[in-house]
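Quick board copy: two proteins, each given as sequence then tokens.
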Amino acid sequence: INSAGVGYFGMHEDIDFEKIERIIDLNLKAPILLSKLFLKALKKNRGYIFNISSISAIKPAIFGAAYGASKAGLRHFGKSLFSEARKSGLKVININPDITKTPFFENLNFSYTDDSESYIEPLEIAKIVEDILNLREGTVITDITVEPQKFKILKKSCKNPQ
């Protein structure tokens, strides 16, 4: 499961080169290289690769251009890898959650609200993974988007500003 991620948000011209490199390295480069490292064994065992991407892979990421590009790249990688390796039995699944109640937002200037209908719980993503693992052999969900019922974002002051 490729689920590590980092994001820095703001006007693209205001984000340091080092932060952009970190976004690309962790969100895109690491999953591509890790997948390559384990690909032969995963194909042999008809395994799974889960890419936990982001809603930003699908929708424009305002104030998160590099983040959105990294997640869109991860999603495209997953779709391409599945097409390339599907005959081996390898399953590649992209999960694109919207705002999820995790520590990801601790040092950002926005977060989820207290309204339980405005965020995704991490256990809900885990349940989706479990449900996919329990599908009949030969059936693959390759791409799934998970959104809360309500769209609400809490704006806050940033602990570690850009």
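And the next:
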Amino acid sequence: EKNLREGLNFRLPDCLRILRLGRVPDAFHARRTAAKQYSYYFQVGPVNLPHLQRYTMWCRHPLDGAAMEAAVRSLLGEHDFSPFASARSGAVSRVRRIDEAAVTCETVRWPGSFCGSQHQVWRLRLVGSGFLKQMVRGIAGTLKLVGEGRRPAEDFAAILASGDRQAAGPTAPASGLWLERVWYPEQEGIAFLEE
């Protein structure tokens, strides 16, 4: 194992390193077996802060966190996520499982008196077994409408049940989307790869 690890690390660029090696079950698939955590960030304030604009979606008006949290609870479990995904997704099955869905908020203060105000950064966090093309961005775009009071939180369950992309809101910009973590769940029999 040590010789293989060292040989592979010699060939890899410096930014990649193999720390441990081990056997996996025959049914293991590097991409499909992995759990993923995506977050989408909304910046809320009177102006689009320059240091955040490349990493968040700017919202001028306050968002209703309680309504947003109620909406994302509908996403938990196994569903056909077609309404939130790109119509051009090449996935054979559009059924995915969301294990965790949460909405949180932090206040951001810029040093000095830049803009003379505080900004909020809202975070949509989704953990699941797999995601369709633009699925998280479709959820985020619809969630923004809920947060602004333009759609009720109950719409999320109805949108999922409809199976219709037109029922959901617009796809949010890519700037707020972050793939934050990828790991292999212990129940898959490959706990040695866990962080």
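Board note added afterward: The chain has one domain: 26-193.
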